[in-house]
Amino acid sequence: MRSDQLIKVSFVAIIIGILSLTAFSHPLGNFSVNQYSRLEVDSSEIRIRQVLDLAEIPTFQEQSLIDTDKDGKMSEDELKAYLNKITPAILENLILTVNDERLKLEVKSSESRTEVGAGDLPTLKFFWTLSAKLPKLMKYNHVYFENKNFEDRIGWNEIVINHVGGTKVFDSTGFGSGITDELKAYPQESLDAPLKERNVQFKFTTAELPPDSKPLKNRDGHLTKSIERDKLAEIISVPEITPMIVLLGLVIAFGLGATHALSPGHGKTIVGAYLVGSRGTIKHALILGLTVTLTHTSSVFLLGLVTLFASNFILPEKLLPFLQFASGLLVCFIGFSLLKNRLLQLIKPQHFHYHSHHHGHAHPHEHVHISTAIHQHHLHDHHHEDHEHTHHGHSHLPPDEISLKSLISLGISGGLMPCPSALVLMLSAISLNRTAYGLLLILFFSIGLAFTLTLVGVSFLYLGRAFGSVSENRLFKTIPVLSALIITFLGAFICYKSFN
If I label 72, which of 60, 89, 105, 427 is the partner at 20 to 30 A Cα–Cα? Predict the structure, then answer.
């Protein structure tokens, strides 16, 4: 390939990487443990189709238990042994009762599969076909089902009810149709609030439905989202590492970090609200960017170490709400501090200052008067012996001085929540023995994230100055106070959302 062709191909690859927003291999995230239960009610038995789907990080944690010969792979025999090992506990946590009598579940068949996930990390899927013989039935029978497996893990939990063989289901708290096709696709509108169907109850009969009963209904109106590849984690899993590949990877990681910062969250509003009305400089924006970079990189490393070495004691996803809460507290601290200072400045009375100069010399000279809020330079020459300057009515509201403490706090809050894609990249790099390259990619991803936040900050700085130069109206002087209120509110909202 000629050099000009190589340049064109490289350019296209970089553009594609930068324009591609990060996507999870699992739409619900790489931490998720997802479950699907389908109950089929017959006149003589209830059959259950149970599916367990472990995303990249839970699979990574379980791999050490599955890979008994420590060859770095999960063989069919090892997966079968692991499946047989976990099946009794899975069944014990599936509660099925008919007319208040618990039924014993029997395994008709079971299967395990591995699939390639983000960064070529494996994911696991387990399938069970279960059945339970029905006891002597009444005319109308009450069924209760509960899935108590992995209650402490985040993920999608779906229950579907089917009736076959002439049975009729009614008065159900569940639905007769599924959403994910056994966890193959997820509804786009539900990604922020995954389904949590842990239990269901209904009645069934082989006779006619009783009066005023509610027949089983289906779900509708859902748009599905297929599983996508993780663009960031894909960088590490290329077949061969060359200097050109490393260079392209770093550029793409930077671009993905920059575009990832444009997605909801990441503190763009907070950064803008902080810098509006502040006496900030490019130096402050660079300090902010550096803090975000170091914090985000460190948080990914920390969570990766927890995943590798401490997952038996604490689940890594359990740390995320605490990190988010800490981020919210930092934002609240910044907001309260700004609100106090900016309120004092707003209610400070207008001041007038006078000064005079008496010169006993006759040569031209210049006076430069600098307004606090608007920088205006007045150049004038004087050719007289005695003169006096009197300045009246300078009521410009001085912007906040940016403190290093609040600036660093803001940067920490912006980078404290690690991107799951970056964590998957780190684990994939370790499994592929490309740790140094993986850490470098994470660093450039964090730099890209910080670049966007810094750019937003600089834009708001100049926007605030533009407002200051447009009007001396008191309404414009309240903008810094309003922005401080916004920061405080957003900090409180982040704290609330961390555990909700």
Answer: 89
